[in-house]
Hints:
Layout: H1 22-50, H2 59-68, E1 73-74, H3 75-81, H4 86-99, E2 102-106, E3 114-118, H5 120-143, H6 151-172
Antiparallel strand pairs: 1-3, 2-3
Amino acid sequence: MLAPAPRDPRPTVPADAEALPDMTRAYLESLQLLERMHRLMLDLVKDEFERPRHGDLTPVQAMILYNMGEAEVSAGELRSRGMYQGSNVSYNLKKLVAMGYVHHERCDLDRRSVKVRLTPEGQAMREMVRQLFIRHAEGLAMSGVLEDPPLPQVNLQCRRIERFWGDQIRYIY
């Protein structure tokens, strides 16, 4: 079994949150946890790539490779799939092409559009990230962390929040 998570000395919700309803406080804490978990995940990926001397690849670039998978996609598709902001995708794709991890090709029908796919080197880097995540999943499963509440239930709740946020953005525009 894993040891309980250490208590973070920083408050997990703003000091004035005590007056808020329990569910609101829990939501605010979830937002902070999501942000910290995302940063930790990027740090884990960074550590994984620094060990075998692949320090040229940033964690965000490694996640782009991972999320591209076997598909041939456009930068817009990557933006809609992942956690990437507009110009960052273009910048990172240019870097990935220059490093030889991604092949790009202009679309025949729309010359402004570029399709990208992983090169064999990019596929090898993607596999490194995939193996890292598999090792983590196996370790978490053995520790029992993923059982209470069951991770599929947690994922369902996260998808509902994601859908709510997406609806809020669409409502604004």
